Amino acid sequence: ALPLIIRAVIVMAVPADRDESAALLDEIRVLRAEYEAQANSESPSPKLQFEFASLLICSPTRSEVQEGTLLLEQLLDVGFRRTECLHQLTLAHLKLGQYVKAKEQVDVWLQLDPRNGMARMLQSVVLERASHDGFIGFFVLGLVGAGALLAILRRWK
User: What is the separation of C-alpha 43 from the centre of its chain, rounded to a whole number of angstroms?
Assistant: First the structure.
């Protein structure tokens, strides 16, 4: 079996078929029950919270990805596995299309570990995706503006 973090990256990168989605949802349901049971105990486990959050960010459901980011941010605030939390948060923000937050997370990660190859690669992915999506948005806005201009010109004729 692959470690949870590697599975998380694979699940986020490869579109899931029905069997994989069902297995992921089952795994989330099982881990959620474990997490909720220990969350109310005297000594909640940050390791279990990290594993649960890492699994949530693999979910195809946006609300679960957002829930995972909140749990990871809590862990980051208390200093639990900072670089691993920053890695998972960067992936989650990329998945959500929140490129500014993804860049902030990867920049902090690079401050902590400037020679980390994964952090450098993710930084380039964040910048590429942000510029690509920004270009598409600019292009669509231009098309809408051109369409509006044509409509106005036709009415004046």
Answer: 28
